[in-house]
Write a structure and sequence with these properties.
alpha+beta; N-terminal domain of MutM-like DNA repair proteins; 2 domains; 4-stranded antiparallel beta sheet
Length: 263
């Protein structure tokens, strides 16, 4: 699933192609959500955690969440696509380009002025990659949360948005934290350090096409623990383990039982 850095990159790539451009055609497998867009201009493109936002001059905003399989593609304006209409989440044609989003399960359109009370956006915590981000404020919320484990709290987008399963695993390893400790067991300073590290690590990947959290060089693993179950830890040699956690949306945590022992 795309995490905050991926959506940020999408916004950077789409912004010069869309902002200021008139919409010549707008199609979607949910026709009602793009009705009336033709003729209006795109005013803004920005990320909000794992959500991509597109502001339109008619006073509405489009929200796209790619989930596991969503993708963006660029075509020439008016160019036919071999994509099945049922897979087209959103297509916006401007005079020069066509931006096609496929396989995304979420396309939402709402009045921009209603953003503060939007049922999804209003529940999101501070964006890790936002210009102003206070690790200590977010840390206090995480530490006081009702989650059973640190790993679950780190994924809670209502506490802070943008961190997904890959970064969760990598951050907990890099900071040496037990993923399954209770949030209250982790001191406030360590929680703040975890979120500060998240901002730094995600920021360092904004210019990369392949997410690389190890920076070990060509031919070396891109991740310290994520996706490396049963393989030796790159630091201590112990075998990387996995455990599923979370009730509503179970996730798998990869961790090193030796480097991330309870403190």
């Amino acid at each position: 699933m795309p995490e905050g850095d991926t959506v940020y990159r999408h916004a950077v790539l789409l912004r010069p192609l869309l902002v200021g451009q008139p919409i010549r055609a707008a199609t979607s497998r949910w026709p009602g959500r793009v009705q009336g867009l033709v003729g209006h201009r795109i005013q803004r493109v920005w990320p909000r955690g794992k959500h991509l936002m597109i502001g339109v001059s008619d006073g509405t905003t489009l929200r796209i969440h790619l989930a596991m399989h969503g993708q963006w593609r660029r075509l020439a304006s008016g160019q036919r696509s071999d994509t099945s209409p049922g897979d087209v989440s959103l297509r916006l044609d401007t005079p020069e380009d066509a931006l096609l989003c496929v396989h995304a399960p979420t396309l939402d359109r709402f009045e921009t002025r209603q953003a503060p009370i939007h049922p999804v956006l209003s529940r999101l915590g501070p964006d890790v990659l936002a210009p102003r981000f206070d690790p200590f404020a977010v840390a206090a919320r995480a530490r006081a949360s009702s989650h059973h484990t640190v790993a679950e709290a780190l994924l809670d987008q209502a506490i802070s948005c943008g961190v997904g399963n890959i970064y969760k695993c990598e951050l907990l390893f890099l900071c040496g934290h037990d993923p399954f400790a209770s949030p209250a067991e982790l001191p406030l300073e360590r929680w703040a350090g975890l979120y500060a590290r998240a901002r730094t690590l995600m920021g360092a990947n904004l210019e990369l096409t392949a997410r690389d959290t190890t920076r070990l060089g060509s031919g070396q693993p891109l991740h310290w623990v994520y996706g490396r179950r049963g393989r030796p830890c790159l630091r201590c040699g112990a075998l990387i383990a996995t455990r599923s956690h979370g009730l509503d949306l179970p996730r798998i945590t990869f961790w090193c039982p030796r480097c991330q022992t309870p403190r």
